[in-house]
Amino acid sequence: MTDPYGTDATWYDLLHADYDEDLGLWLSFAGRTDLPVLEVGCGTGRVLLPLAQAGHKVVGVDPSAAMLESARSRISPVAGRVELLHGKPQEVELPADHFGFVLVANDVFLYCRDGDEQVDFLQAIARAMHFNAVLAIDVPGPVMHLDASQNGQPILIYEGPDDDGQQLLVWHVRTDDLANQVRHLHIIYEVTGHDGAVRRYHSEHHLRYPHRFELEYLLRLSGLMQLDVFGDYDLGPLTSNSERMIVTALKAHG
Q1: What are phi and psi of 181, to 5 degrees?
Q2: Residues with Cβ < 8 Å from 144, sequence gap 6 or more?
Q3: pLDDT (tens digit per residue) in 10-28
Q4: Of 97, 27, 85, 84, which is closest to residue 56 (Cα–Cα)?
Q5: Ordered structural domains, the chain, with CATH
Q6: What is the pLDDT of residues 168-206, one digit of tens each?
C-alpha cells in the first residue's frame, strides 16, 4: 500500500510546528508511571520528543518510513531514550506487559480501515500494556465529525512560505461518507518555486470515524475496559460541542 505520508512528511512539521495544546495532558499521563511509554503513530516526533526530553523511555511506532526518517533527524539529543519501530502495532514485535502508558494521539486511530483492523490494533496494544497501564486514544469529537455538506470543495488550510522560502498553498478536498463513517481526504500541495514554476504534489487518506459507544465496544472486544471519556485536553466532559474525544482505558482482567 502506498504511504500517503511519503508526500506529507516533507511539509508536516511546517504545518504542525505550533500545535502543542495536547502536550501537557500527555506529559501528565506519562508522569504517572515509571515504566516505558508507547506512542502509536508517532510521526515525526511532535509528542515523542517532549516525552523523551522529560526523561521517559519511549517507543514510537509508525507505518510511514518517511515520517520516521524525519523523527530520527530530530531525536539525536535523546536517542538513548527512544526506540523507533516501522509498522503498525499489530505488525511489529512489542514486548508483552511492558508499557505503563500508551498514547494514540491526534486522529491516528482513524487510519484503521474497518472493525477487524481496529480490533487487531487494540489487541496488540493490550498485550503490550502492563497490568496497571493506561491507554489514551484521541479522536475527533462530535462537532468535528463527518459533514457531507462540504464534499468536493477545496479548502485552503495553509498559505505561506515553505522551509526553502517558496510559496506554498495546501488544500484539503474531503469526501465524507456518513453511512460508512469514512472520510476520503485528498491533500494538494502547490509549490511556486523561485523560478516561478508551479509544482503540485498529492496525497490520499482513508479515515474511519468511530463513535463514542462503538469505541467502548471495540475496547471490550480487545481485552480492554473503558475508564473515562473527555471532551478536551483539560479533561472536561464530552458534549455535543466537543472538538475532541479522548477515551482512556485499562487492561481488562479476569
Answers
A1: 60, 40
A2: 243, 244
A3: 999 999 978 999 999 999 9
A4: 27
A5: 5-141+209-251 (3.40.50.150), 148-208 (2.20.25)
A6: 999 999 999 999 999 999 999 999 999 999 999 999 999
C-alpha cell at 86: 516501522
Residue 176 grid cell? 465524507
Alpha carbon distance 174, 46 (integer Å): 25
Q: Where do runs of H (alpha helix) occur along the chain?
A: 5-16, 23-30, 48-53, 65-74, 115-128, 212-221
Residue labelled with grid coordinates 480501515: 113
The interaxial angle of helices 5-16 and 65-74, nearest 10 deg, is 40
What does the block give as the cell for 16?
A: 504542525
Task: Supply 22's cell numbers.
Answer: 495536547
What's the chain's length in residues? 254
Please enumerate in sequence order all residues whose Cβ is within 8 A of that of 63, keeping only pairs 6 or more positions apart, or say none: 3, 86, 87, 88, 91, 111
pTM of the model: 0.95
> Residue 41 is which amino acid?
G
Q: What is the rounded CA–CA span in Å between residue 201 and residue 11?
A: 11
Q: How many other CB atoms are there within 10 angstroms of residue 32's CB atom? A: 12
The helix or strand, by DSSP H or E, that contains position 245, with its residue range, turns out to be strand 244-251
**Cα(first)–Cα(last) distance of the chain, in Å?**
38
The per-residue pLDDT for 247 is 98
